Q: What sequence folds into this?
């Protein structure tokens, strides 16, 4: 089952967390979050902006985040990520975050599914699937000129989506740590999530 949350729904961060609880098993290692995209295009920056927020929110916790504004995971790096993640985090579920294109009525939706995603499909790239769970923010309508649409996306939409996704994932990870008995120091920045 796929889950969708509108960017303007005030309950969306909680929905993202609940969807992840239903999809991601809590019996293995801590989840790894892979945020895909580039800071060179506003529409493609959803992953790196989300990754940057997650690095701040999850600092000091037992959770790995790959793909930030400082160190983005672009289509060029994605082809190496599956092998790297298998070797480095063999028992961890991988949550992949990326921007996507869709139907006109889907713009502004955050979609969560129990399957990996194919990064770069919006730009007609043929890459392998990555991740066990996908979180996709629909930022533009699918067309033959997807790349130009990625450039025309409003930064405000990307920023709001990244806040929702980062808050939802953070709540999920904090709950995971609490339920598995992992003792980690929580920074003061998490007060709003507890």
A:
């Amino acid at each position: 089952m796929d889950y969708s949350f509108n960017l303007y729904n005030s309950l969306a961060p909680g929905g993202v967390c609940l969807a992840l609880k239903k999809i991601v098993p809590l019996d293995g290692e801590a989840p790894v979050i892979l945020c895909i995209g580039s800071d060179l295009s506003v529409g493609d920056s959803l992953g790196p902006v989300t990754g940057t927020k997650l690095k701040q929110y999850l600092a000091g916790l037992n959770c790995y985040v790959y793909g930030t504004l400082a160190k983005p995971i672009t289509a060029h790096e994605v082809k190496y990520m599956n092998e790297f993640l298998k070797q480095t985090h063999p028992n961890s579920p991988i949550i992949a975050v990326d921007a996507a294109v869709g139907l006109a009525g889907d713009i502004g939706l955050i979609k969560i599914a129990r399957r990996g995603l194919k990064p770069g499909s919006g730009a007609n790239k043929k890459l392998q699937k990555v991740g066990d769970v996908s979180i996709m923010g629909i930022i533009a309508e699918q067309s033959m000129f997807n790349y130009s649409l990625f450039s025309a996306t409003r930064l405000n939409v990307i920023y709001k989506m990244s806040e929702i996704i980062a808050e939802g994932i953070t709540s999920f990870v904090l709950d995971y740590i609490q339920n598995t008995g992992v003792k980690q120091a929580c920074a003061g920045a998490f007060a709003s999530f507890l």
